[in-house]
Amino acid sequence: MKYLSIIICLLLIITSCNESKTIEKTEKPRKVSEVDMSSNDVVHLSTVDGTYDNWENFLEKNRGKVVYLDIWASWCGPCKAQFPHAKKLKEKFAGKEVVFAYISIDQAEERWKQGIQQYDINEYSFHAKNYPKASLFQKNDVSRIPRYMLFDKNGRLVDNNAARPSQPSLETTLNSFLAL
To answer: What is the value of pTM for the model shown?
Structure first.
């Protein structure tokens, strides 16, 4: 009887060791205040709801899509003049693998939030927390706005001075990158 108890215990131990446990990895969105933003290797971003993201992570999440980036500010007249054109272009590319993203370089986050509401650019709209120090801004001499950049489906920067939404050549360029 003693041996039977030992064998049963061993069988229970062996079967419990072989049982695979699925651990779900879900990353909880972090608040901007919870993140160390001392590094300028990435563009640190604040989202509308106050959570943190960074540009490189955003590109990774949108791998397989062409990303058109608009760098703007609420006080920039030429930036604001392009928003209606961007909206029309976005409608033309609806359902296609193109993402229109917006990074504001406003110093005051409240001005950025007012701007995205006023111009209806809520989706993929971010506030840069480390402008002008981030490497994306430094390497590409982003000292004047509006500034537009184009990233291919692999997240590589292919045009650091892309056409404005009002320029007809942009539609052709986007279509050519979609075809690749």
So the answer is: 0.79
